[in-house]
Backbone:
């Protein structure tokens, strides 16, 4: 009954948004949880033993967020089983998402080209290996099913030429994250002068610190790079990064609510690799500055982002 009520309320929200010219941008995690209804109802599609326990699980190798990688623990897919049923489960999964959202980001898109496979019971993700995935055939099946792919590829992390080729083959926009732009060289793809129109720019994602928290913890080299790029001191964070995102040539810009509100690390949504203390922050109306709407509208108009 709770799911029924949620669905009814969500569709009312979506209808109200559409009536005001607002589209909803959703998120599709590549993997699903072991204790999900999907795994329970479709065991043959997942890497499970006879008792329903995972034999191989998902994660990523050491990266920006963790020296030992991230051990997510989601059961990996039995791709041959998915191919035998012509990816029917995936078609229905995306159909459900598109009934709720107008645009969907595939989280961990690179896993459609190859997954980081970790033996069940491993202590860290460092015990994993890359295993190919049938992303080309899967995306082609989805394109035929829907006549187009209203998707965004989360192309962060270990991105190889093969992953880029897969994204480009299907014309999916990738991501640019401003918090990843500073401290390297001028070729960094996250720097605004390297942005492309067919992309989505973020100040930071749910995995990053808030922009205020990020700026407070910047290493001296990255801070100097940021200030040189801005032509002076960063000033009132997070507004310089908000302005940078909205000025980007990327067609879509995403400003997390915590950044719009100017909140610090206490409002961070997620810390990758940690299992406790995440997804706790909640929006409160009394956090909204009285001039926020006018200030955002001014920047949206200045950079041609008003409909």
Residues:
């Amino acid at each position: 009954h709770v799911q029924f009520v949620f669905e009814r309320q969500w569709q009312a929200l979506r209808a109200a948004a559409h009536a005001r010219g607002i589209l909803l941008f959703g998120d599709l995690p590549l993997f699903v949880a072991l204790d999900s209804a999907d795994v329970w109802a479709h065991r043959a599609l997942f890497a499970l033993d006879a008792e329903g326990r995972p034999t191989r699980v998902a994660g990523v190798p050491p990266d920006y967020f963790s020296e030992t990688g991230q051990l997510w623990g989601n059961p990996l897919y039995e791709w041959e089983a998915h191919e035998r049923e012509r990816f029917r489960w995936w078609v229905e999964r995306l159909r459900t998402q598109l009934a709720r959202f107008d645009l969907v980001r595939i989280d961990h898109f690179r896993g459609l080209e190859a997954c980081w496979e970790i033996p069940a019971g491993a202590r860290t993700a460092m015990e994993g290996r890359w295993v190919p995935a049938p992303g080309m055939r899967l995306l082609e099946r989805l394109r035929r099913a829907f006549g187009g792919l209203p998707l965004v590829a989360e192309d962060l992390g270990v991105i190889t030429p093969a992953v880029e080729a897969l994204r480009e083959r299907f014309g999916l926009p990738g991501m640019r994250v401003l918090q990843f732009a500073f401290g390297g060289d001028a070729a960094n793809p996250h720097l605004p002068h390297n942005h492309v129109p067919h992309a989505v720019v973020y100040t930071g994602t749910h995995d990053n610190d808030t922009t205020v928290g990020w700026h407070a913890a910047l290493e001296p080299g990255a801070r100097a790079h940021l200030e040189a790029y801005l032509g002076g001191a960063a000033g009132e964070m997070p507004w310089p990064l908000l302005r940078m995102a909205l000025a980007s040539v990327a067609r879509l810009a995403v400003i997390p609510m915590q950044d719009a509100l100017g909140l610090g690390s206490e409002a961070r949504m997620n810390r990758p690799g940690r299992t406790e203390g995440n997804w706790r922050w909640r929006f409160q109306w009394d956090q909204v500055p009285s001039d926020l709407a006018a200030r955002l509208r001014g920047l949206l108009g200045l950079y041609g982002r008003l409909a």
